[in-house]
Amino acid sequence: MVLKLYCPQNVTASNGIVALVLAEKQIPFEFVQVDLASQQHKTPDFVAMQPFGQVPVIDDDGFILYESRAVCRYLAEKYPDQGPKLVPAGLKEKARFEQAASVELAHLYPAVLKVAAEVSAKQRQGLPVDQTVIDACLAEFPAKFDVYEGILGRHRYLAGEELTLVDLFHLFYAQLLVGAEIMTRESRPNVTRWWKELISQPAWVKLKEEGIKGTVN
C-alpha cells in the first residue's frame, strides 16, 4: 500500500516540509487533499487519525503519524539510502543534529507561533492584524541569527557539513522571514549563504510553484 499524505495542496509551513522530504527522498505517495476552509480537518473521520484536528498526517500502510517533525524523522530514517540522508547515523553526529533541532524548536519556533496566533486569531474574528505584535515577535530573531552566524561560520549547515532535517525545518518560517528581510543581511554572510541555498533547492522551488501533488493516484 502506497503512503498517503493528508494536507492542503498549498505549500504552507509543515505541509511543505513533509512534501519536500518526500520529494528529496523520492518516496512515492498519494496526495489526499484536506479542505481547511470547509473544516474537513475537524470531521470525526479526520480527528480519528489526528486527535488535534491538524495537518499534515501520513498513513503508511496503516501506520498513522502526525506532527511534521516526527513525520520527517520517520521518513528520513525509514529510507536512509534514498536521496540525502537528512538524519546522521553516527552517535556524535546525531547528537549534534538533535542539539540543532532542539535549538530550532526552543529558540525560534515560539516567536513564529506568536505571529501565527496573532494572524489566525484576528482573521477568525475578522479584525485587522496588530502589526506591533508582529514587529515585537520579529524583533526576537536578529539576536538568534547572530548566534547562527557563528555556527554557520564553523560548518556549512547547522548540524555539520551535510544537509539535515534541521536545516529544512527552518523553511517553516520562509514566508515570514523573507518578507521581513531578516535572513539576507550583510552583517550575517554565513546565514545569508545558508538561507539562499535552502530556498533555492530545486525540489522546494518546484513545490512552491506547483503546490503539493502526489506521485501516484
Q: Write down the Rg.
A: 18 Å
Count of strand segments? 4
* Low-pLDDT runs: none
The first-to-last residue Cα distance is: 12 Å
The biggest sheet, with number of strands, parallel, antiparallel or mixed sense and barrel status, is: 4 strands, mixed
Task: Give helix and strand order, one letter per element, not per position.
Answer: EHEHEEHHHHHHHH
Q: Averaged pLDDT, please? A: 91
Helix content: 40-55%
Please work out how many helical segments DSSP would assign. 10
Given the helix and strand composition, which structural class is it? Answer: alpha+beta
Widest sheet: strand ordering:
2-1-3-4
Looking at the structure, what is the overall shape? globular
Name the beta content range. Answer: 5-15%
Offer a few descriptive terms:
alpha+beta
Write up this protein.
GO terms for molecular function: glutathione binding; glutathione transferase activity. One of its GO terms (biological process) is glutathione metabolic process. It is an enzyme of class 2 (transferase). The protein has helices at 13-24, 44-49, 68-78, 91-125, 131-138, 141-154, 165-169, 174-179, 189-199, 202-210; strands at residues 3-7, 29-33, 57-60, 63-66. It is of the alpha+beta class. It is 54% helix and 8% strand. The mean pLDDT is 91. Strands 2-1-3-4 form a 4-stranded mixed β-sheet, covered by helices on one side. A hairpin with a 2-residue loop joins strand 3 (57-60) and strand 4. The protein is built from 10 helices and 4 strands.
What is the fold's blueprint, element by element?
Elements: E1 3-7, H1 13-24, E2 29-33, H2 44-49, E3 57-60, E4 63-66, H3 68-78, H4 91-125, H5 131-138, H6 141-154, H7 165-169, H8 174-179, H9 189-199, H10 202-210
Pfam family, one: GST_N
Family: Belongs to the GST superfamily.
GO molecular function: glutathione binding; glutathione transferase activity
